[in-house]
Request: fold
Amino acid sequence: MNLSEVKNRVVITGLGVVAPNGVGLPAFTNAIKTGTSGITYHQNLKDKGFSCCIGGVPIISEEKKLEYLSPLQLRGFNSSSILYGCMAGIDAWKDAGFSVEENSELDYDSGLIFGTGTSGIEKLREAIYKIDDQNVRRLGSTSVVQTMASGISAYLGGILGFGNQVTTNSSACTTGTEALLLGFERIKNGKAKRMLVGSSSDSSLYTWGGFDAMRVMSYKHNEAPEKGSRPMSATAAGFVPGSGAGALVLESLESALERKATIYAEVLGGNINSGGQRKGGTLTAPNSEAVQKCITDAVLDSGISSSEIDVINGHLTATSKDSLEIENWTKALQRKGKYFPYINSLKSMVGHCLAASGAIECVAAVAQVKGQFVFPNINCDDVHPEISALISNDKIPTQIIEKNITILAKASFGFGDVNGCVIFKKYSD
Amino acid sequence: MTKEEIISKLTTIVKPYVQNEEGFKNLNENTDFINDLEINSANLVDIILDVEDEFKIEIDNDSMEKMLSVKATVEIIQTKINA
Reply:
């Protein structure tokens, strides 16, 4: 059998997550079921003159760090995105049933694609100050590996001993979903048996500052942080910044069955495209035609009909673009009103985790398919009238719904007019 | 500062970077950082920065290149302290 001609089925066999409302899969799953917010007030944002002083930051103790990184790795360490990515990645790999050992045998069948926007921005700041102070030699050996974009894949690749492709992708807020689809393609085409995919983003005012300056972050809820992130709400006032990492182990069905691994869900297919910053698309705004095409092509790629979609996990950031996103879904799926699927946005609980958002949200999406529930949208008791005009309000649950989910669609959209949509299916042989 | 005192301080400095504990237990004047302690070569620059901080000296590029063993390092530290 020629491996290059095989089109493998791809399943998910491991999950890991570091989110503002839950670190580790059990805590995170519990948080999304109960609608627990991870958004808090941050005095350092206020002190630096930010308009938005709330954000989502995962809480991690020093002891917890030592469960994942060695004292040597933590010397001069100042990159939260790498820390979160390592934690989520290692958790996912262990969750899939693998051990993590320093001298494990090199595994040429396993690789990883782990994305980020910028890496170690606080470390980069440290380095810039030293260089400006004519102290370049004081950077030591830790600056490059923590600030190179591929720092996260480099760290994880070494910790896990992967011998297949080890790389970092970057496509703004589409990054995590794109990483998943790139890994999916690689396994489908027989180039790898397992791909650890995910993305991470720093908790840093230096990552968030530019968005504050663009006035796209919410400054109206500094007094009530948990109410601040309001996707699809009439009182949405911009996104709330978040941070963290999500990771998923993708595996060929054949390999998963051989190992008798727990299967969370199947990746049926998906699509990645760009609106080319044409037809209304810009560096920061989406070309709706391309968004719709991305969704319809994902449905097509998965070999399903749009009527089969039970649940959508949207991008839905709580900016003025939410209504447009809903409109695009209704057009792409040819479903509206009461015929529209259930839809939710994780951002209501964790904020917009930027480069990490796609991966954390894919973890949430897969947890729903595995657990057969639809997590609640918090802060959406007042659905935006433009959205109510398109879909029934009861399709935007504000309480958890226990439900048979066969197909779930997840999409992410990013600056640069880039789109990604993936279709998950409850696993059945 | 005596040679013994310098070696004692140096032992504390290199400890976090050591990957061969056996070599570390037997650390002596002839110990080679890379061959005996299996210290990652990238970490040698970190050790030099730690040495600068501990002994309040500055180590130039030429000296740096020679600091691959305990013996050479002690000699350079002594020279710089006495300079």
In short: Residues 293 and 363 of chain A are 24 Å apart (CA to CA). Chain A touches chain B at residues 71-72, 75-76, 137-138, 140-142 (CB under 8 Å). Chain A has a mean pLDDT of 97.
